[in-house]
Amino acid sequence: MNAPFVPASPERNHGRDQRLDVFRGLALMTIFINHVPGNAFERLTSRNFGFSDAAEAFVLMSGIAVGLAYSRSFRADPFLSACTRVWRRAWTLYVTHLVSSMFAIGLVAAGVLYLGTVEMVGKINFARLLDQPLQTMVGIPLLGHQLGYFNILPLYATLLLVSPLYILIGLRSRLALVAVSVLVWMAAGFLRLNMPNYPNPGGWFFNPFAWQLIYAIGIAGGLAMLDGRKLVPFKPWLFWLCTAYLAVSCVWVMYQLGKLPGAQVVPFFMGGFDKTFLALPRLLHALALAYVLTNAAWVVGLFKLPIFGPIELMGRNGLAVFATGSVLAIVLQILRIRFETNVPADAALLAAGIAIQYGVARFLTARKADAKVVKAASMAVDKPLVPGGGKPRLREVA
User: Fold this and answer.
1) Using alpha carbons only, what angle is made at residue 274 by residues 121 and 97, rounded to the nearest 5 degrees?
2) Alpha-carbon distances, residue 332 vs 49, 107, 329 (angstroms)
3) C-beta atoms surrounding 252 within 10 Å
């Protein structure tokens, strides 16, 4: 195989993979654009060129990040301590979801009151707050009632709760982890398992019983990276098979060719494009895209260009950027309803939103850097001047 398509083997226990942060930053930008429906640029996002979209990429990369970040604890630390680290992160996501949802509710209410943007009530599942307020106030903290475009964090937080089990299985056998998650995915499809909405009927838009599959594959991939390996080794025939699948998917979506051949004779979640149950064509598209991009050496060189620096920074601060983007998307939806926008106006609004998200990422990165400097200085002055000496140690840094 020619060198441009084969990257060097992943290194063992090295720092962050720049590609992961850039891909996550690109996914966050894509989600933000798609969360402002009707804008002139959403036709250019990934969902218009294949079966999957940025949501699949986001969840896959979240699984990889969990495998990289938490699996060492389950090897070295007490089990309960390792679980607590993961569950603390789940709690952070839960609180972030509630806070961002409250901001969105306030913004929609203000838009209706002061700008006359009543259309927003029907766009983001807001009506239940008006006709069933008490039930909805119960449903929101239970994650049963989710505003439109505020569905990913509940999924991620729920998946984090079961991550310790998945990590333990994966540490023993990555193949067993994928096999267990496939069985859960199939059970969700055949039995229509889902988390309940309340007070609305039906289930979650992102069904955790189905979406755990791509998340588990991500965890397995993260575990493989820690061992200096790939979950699926490079094979030229597989690379070109994935490339061909991506090309067919692109043509199928761009020309709106409808159902896949044979879709009517297989279960809906295997032959269709259902997003809630993570239909097989969507899953395979996301995995094929990941395989091609991670086995193309030119991606590493491309991502080192200066233009990708801000995107990488956004990916490094994914949660804060995502929450900020979710709230900003509501602001932009309100503005686009109140004022007629054209292509330049949409470009200006989206650029401003992305610039704010980048500003949040820069601010948080600077804070982390300052905290490291203070910690290093504190540790330096806390050491005794003479090894083993009895001089008192400084406890504070001026």
Assistant:
1) 45
2) 25, 11, 5
3) 18
Is 374 a domain residue?
no
Residue where the block lists tokens 């610039």: 355
Q: What is the CA radius of gyration of the chain?
A: 23
Dihedral pair phi/psi, residue 380, rounded to 5°: -65, -45
Strand partners of residue 203: 196
Torsion angles phi and psi, residue 96, rounded to 5: -60, -40
Which of 89, 60, 59, 72 shows the shortest CA–CA distance to 13?
72
Q: Does residue 394 lie within any of the structural domains?
A: no
SS3 content of the chain, % helix, strand, coil (to 5): 70, 0, 30
Cβ count near 76 (within 10 Å): 9
Angstrom CA distances, 170 to 25, 129, 372, stand at 27, 42, 32
Residue 395 lies in a domain: no
Overall domain count for the chain = 1
Is 371 a member of any domain?
Answer: no
Residue-range definition of the domain harbouring residue 242: 3-362
- CA 130 to CA 108: how far, in whole Å? 12
Convert the pLDDT of each residue in 75-122 to its tens digit. 989 999 999 999 999 999 999 999 999 999 999 999 999 999 999 999
Instruction: For residue range 296-322, list pLDDT tens digits in order.
Output: 989 989 999 999 999 999 999 999 999
pTM over 0.85: yes
